[in-house]
Amino acid sequence: MENQKETVVIEQCEKLEKTEKKVVEKKYLVTFLMLVSCFVLWGLLNNMTDNLVPAFGKIFMMKAVDSSLVQFAFYGAYAVLAIPAALIIKKYSFRHGLLIGLGLYMIGALGYIPATLFQNYNIFLVSIFILAGGLSILETTCNPFVISLGDEETSIRRINYAQAFNPLGSLVGLFMAKYMILGHLNPATYEERLVMDAAELQSIRETELLWVCIPYVGLIAVALVIWIYFFKNKLSSKDEGGELNFVVSIKQLLSNRVYVFGVITQFFYVGMQIAVWTWMTKYVMTLKGVNEAEAVEMYIIAMVLFIIMRWICTYLMKLFVPARLMAIIALLGILVTFGAIYLPADKAVLCLIAISGCMSLMFPTIYGIALKGLGDEVKLGAAGLIMAILGGALITPYMGGTIDKGTFSFLAPMYSGVEAAVRTSYYVPLVCFVIIFLYGLANSKERK
Known about the structure:
By secondary structure, the protein is an all-alpha fold. The chain has 2 domains: about 200 residues, MFS general substrate transporter like domains (Growth Hormone, Chain: A, Up-down Bundle); about 200 residues, Growth Hormone, Chain: A. Helix 2 runs antiparallel to helix 8 and helix 15 runs antiparallel to helix 19. The two termini are about 35 Å apart.
């Protein structure tokens, strides 16, 4: 009799093990979809803002160093506001963080109106800082919020599902920037604008800045819908504040090797992603001898591959341990990066596009692994991973410097001049892939 009972218990346990836990429970589905909308929103705005650098350079007739202050304001906001955002959601709730983040975005976007009316670049920079501050708070809030909506076992898959919509927003942002902002820039060159009279130049700027303003202000309607939802709805079991012990929390996070290594890995991943995409156009132009418009087509193809691979990898996480899958994809990334450096032009460009596919699952997977098991410290831990986005602001110009100086050209003696410099600059993302591979390998012993 006793043996029969044991057999029944074992069978029940086996059935429970075979029962697949839902990635998103039905009661959290609407909240999850609203959070996914935030992922789309900041992906769209990130890529649209990147294109403000060349746009403002032409509109305000500035040097590259001055127009690049757009990125300084944007990434500076991420660095400054990630920790305050974490303290807000730790003390109060995810809901408060979302309301503040969306509110700052809307305030920043509204700032584009006076900036356009007064044709003032400095007002644009302040508005971009406020807007990006809102996005920083949203990222710091939404990622751990998504992780919290369900079982910890499915948390990495859940964050990958949510992040899968982020590059869709990025792709939309690219098209909006191309057709709404860059597409409405007057073809007049810098020299032609210099000889224009003040009234004519002002008229041109009015039209150009109006089209800079329209998409940002228009997206306020989307942000407002999300804001109203979270203002009216609260998840009592998943949206609670707690005690704010900042020093204790920092000590606990710094003592967690998986988390610390995760922040370092995220720094190199984000730096790699932004650097690869920033210099992709120059790479294609150099190797294929095409103009900017044709080279950008490769960027769009790479982005589409990035989206497709993220969905594929998210599905594969049902079959593989996420960290192990990340290590395998990172190893593949190392191989195609070598291909981009050394193979003939046509094959090298295909390898360059393949790099984007290999980057697809990295950000959310690193995020999920680093935050797994942090408990109450997950909110503050999220801030460190968002601050790691600064890797994009440091690694991108470093990679550009290796192109200018030909730093690693000696590693490809079969090529010469600019081509050798551009090709070998991809040793920078190759090193980043190695770091990601090591992080995935270090955490791949976990059983599925």
